[in-house]
Task: structure prediction
Amino acid sequence: MSELTILTKAMFRERKDIAIAMAGGFVAGIGGVSLFSASGYLISQTVFAPPLYTLIVLISIVKILGLLRAVSRYAERLYTHQATFSILSRLRTSFFAKLVPMAPGRLRTQRSGDLLARIVGDVESLQHYFLRVAYPPVVLVMVFLATVLFASVYSIWIAGLLVLGMLVVVFIVPAIILQGQRKIRGRVRQQRAALSTDATEMLYGFLELKVYGKLRKREQQLLESSDALASEQRAAGLQLLNGQSLHTFVSFLIAWSVLVLGGYLIMRGSLAGVFLAMLIMAALTVFEEAAAMATLPAYKQDSQHAAQRLAETVQDGEAEPRQPEASLRSDTAPSIELSGVSFQYADEWRPALRDVHIRIPAGSKAAIVGASGSGKTTIIELLLKLHAPNEGLIRMNDTPLEELHEASIWQSAAVVLQQSHFFRGTIRDNLLLNGDMLSEEELRDVLVKAGLPYKSLDDLVYERGENLSDGEKQRLALARAMAKGGHLWLLDEPTSSLDVVTEQHIYRQLFEQAAGDTLVLICHRLSGLESMDQIIVMDQGTIVEAGTYGELMDKEGFFYEMKQIERQLIGEGG
Result:
């Protein structure tokens, strides 16, 4: 139950509403038992033709108890649901606060459909923990104890029979139900996750599936997953219905036992006959209050499983004991230093970086070049605190990166990653993600600088930029970075899909805006690097060369050979 710690804390913070709900539930339960007991006693009394005032008093009591039960039941429903919604709100806030800093890593290691199922479905499943698991037993115990004490006044034997029946309802019936539910509920959860994953992947890959003629096959797979889930849900529902039927059978069996035992006690003179109907009605009503115990095991299993999946999702983030205390200054360009940094992705057989040493002074421009898989992008991810190095130390402004809030780094940085996400809306919406209130003229100027003068701010952008070419996506990502600004520029292959002329135009605009800023540029093309303060050449996770363009060309080493190969490929000659 350690996974439910956060849920328990959230419940404790709603203790006022929970206390009111429990009080309402207790009053409603006792009111119901009293109402039907008084009704049974009233029916019995009418046989003996009592005085009229006796009947008037009894009828008035029944009406008052009915009104009390209705009001208290309404209060119970109101405050239990209010507490539940507040608990869910706190759970979502807590879960997302832990998930957001680790989202890039989680998106790489988990299928998006399964992650979506956890974020939405599992959090939603926890609403049943309070309503169906934690709350009913407490109220039931209070109502049951009061009913047993009431029954013991008239017959200790009937009170004992009620205790025996309640033990069967609370422990034996749920155990039987749990035995049948265990395998079925596990299959339901697996099928629900499979359906969510299949649906998400089909939506994301719809165009590719259509082009390659595999859409019909995926549709059939999705239908099979849906049918399998529906079948398992029907089986789970039938099993739950069987459990409720078993509970009802036990409840009526106890009521019949009270009738038989009461008749025997009346024959022996141990019980007045006028109280028999009252005790039978009390037994029926109190066991009706225990109906929630029949479904408790299933909801308990669902809550535990959902909490476990959520804990698995954020456990890496919770394992980080140290909380950053410093913030990166946003008014000056930062210096960057990597000292002996090594990093290896989970489940990878070789490290992405090995003993990397880099020094980028404040306000300087550095280019990182090298073949694919040499570790260039990993450096950007480490600087953004998307990962932490396995060895070594990273500093910004001579402050260890682990001591800096990642939010302050993100706020100070203008970032363009290899894969930029675009949201459905207008170009204006996608340029103003950080909420800056730029004027129309400033936004249009940014589009011109990014090589998109023909685009209107009101042009529609589909989800993930589906209606944009790869080059337009990169230019819009650059325009977004220019609109945001900052004194730290981290650009990962920002112009790989652009022609040389457009690339040179954008770089001129970019370097003009970032004149006094720190800029780190990852690129494959080696043209246009003459203006960089330093060029870092990487191969297989290590730095093989570093220096200015002229120094590296004079050295005629790794960079020189790369440059010669590029010239040959583009037909410039040797």
Remarks:
- The two ends are 69 Å apart (CA to CA).
- The longest strand covers residues 336-343.
- The longest helix spans residues 215-268.
